[in-house]
Amino acid sequence: MRRETERKLEEIWGRVLQLEEVGVEDNFFELGGDSLKAIQLMSLVEQTFEVKLQLDAFYKSPTIASLCEYIAAQVPSVQSAD
To answer: By the 8 A CB rule, do 9 and 68 touch?
Structure first.
């Protein structure tokens, strides 16, 4: 399930940042993300995973890998490995 979560996050990041490829360790802000795109991304993540994403948590760890950990802490089914 974790790999599926990473795949969905890669799709969301690619859509928001208008990039074809995004790695799980890439920094959102280094890829061209800004505060407006962060809010858009947070909204899509919340809709997709039905979790409340805290803005400060995202700013502290703006990678797919860390966001996946954050989601896993809130959604137990994400913790299981593929």
So the answer is: yes
Q: Print the domain residue range for 6.
A: 2-78
Angle, CA of 70, 73 and 78, to the nearest 5°: 90
Query: What is the total count of domains within the chain?
Result: 1
Kindly state the tokens that stand for 69: 């950990």
CATH of the domain at 33: 1.10.1200.10
- For the chain, what is the largest distance between any 2 Cα atoms, rounded to a whole number of angstroms? 33
pLDDT in tens, 2-51: 789 999 999 999 999 999 999 999 999 999 999 999 999 999 999 999 99
